[in-house]
Amino acid sequence: MLLIFEAHPVPYHAPVFRALQQDFDVPVHVVYGSDFSLSGYLDKGFATQLSWDETLLHGYSSQFLSRVAEGGAKNYEEVRPWGMTKLADAHPASAVLSIGYYASYDLSGIGYAIRRGLPLLFRGETNDETHARWPIYNLMRTLYLRRLYARCSAMLYIGQRSKEHFQRYGAPSEKLFFSPYCTDESYFESSPTLARQNRGLIRAKLGISNETKIILFSGKLSKKKGVDYLPAAIRLLPEDLQSKVHLMFVGDGPAREDLEAQISQHPKVAASFAGFQNQDALASYYQAADMLVLPSRERETWGVVINEALINGLPCIVSDGVGCHLDLIKPGVTGEVFVSKNIEALAKAIQTLLARLPDESISLECLKQAERYSVTAAAEGIAKAWRSLPHL
Q1: 67-76: pLDDT as tens digits
Q2: Which listed CATH number (3.90.79.10, 3.30.1490.20, 1.10.10.10, 3.40.50.2000) goes with 2-182+374-387?
Q3: What beta strand segments (E) does 280-391 contain?
């Protein structure tokens, strides 16, 4: 059995666990710290009350250390590993999969594997950013990661940057397995007819004509995501293009008020705010748009909204701070990449992509690229790593 420790169910991991057990015959048991993401919680980044569907638990074995209804952890910060060892010991495992090395719950899961002498597989977000003012922190972090990765029997890289990270810390090639970051494709499955209907409905709802090109941002409205760059970039476009584009923001967050004020000061920048949308409603917004832009000013580990957009055949523009740009964005094919924090470069990228639209071949290329970064591909990588362990 593959034992997995995770703080709470999330829609980007649960489908992979399900595919591992159902499609690749890897027995899985997940020990969740809390069910707050199912019962409902306040997401500080989105500034919105969220809850995910119970179907996240279907298709694999799992249990909770605590439940909100019984006084358990109500958010990520409250999750504690109390009782983890006793509960895990009741499910004899042949290996442990860790999905992080920072939070106390993740560290406790790693500690459990070490205490029980179990092989450790690691599939988590990796970051090579350093703190210039804290050289001692950087040194300690380097020493810690080298020791952790040396203890791992397999490291699952989610993309090119992740692979380079593991190699930088001395991981041998035989311990590296590709398990890409992904999103559940089933949330976005729709026929061409339904996609056209969704496109028309959303545009009618927002009062946007069929001829207008919608530039979509989907995610947390925060300074880190660079949302303020979008209206600034639109103002740099030629006037004839400005009148033909519409910014659509799907999501919420602390930057929304300032963003709305910025846009209101420039009447030539047309924009709509759709608010936070759950995954089952997101597809129609992607289908209504003509491109997605993720202009992050700070480095992001991945950027899963790019997966979501490509699944819907939507080309993307991203800053080079977005980790997945090396994997998912082929300039001139599935979108464009610009230098982070460079508004002029963002405006040029938008203008370049607009000149290629509409083009059905772009959507086909986006779909082809998305297929390589699927739930199946992610589960297959973990299954290969699990079967590579010498005792299996």
Answers
A1: 999 999 999 9
A2: 3.40.50.2000
A3: 291-294, 316-319, 335-338
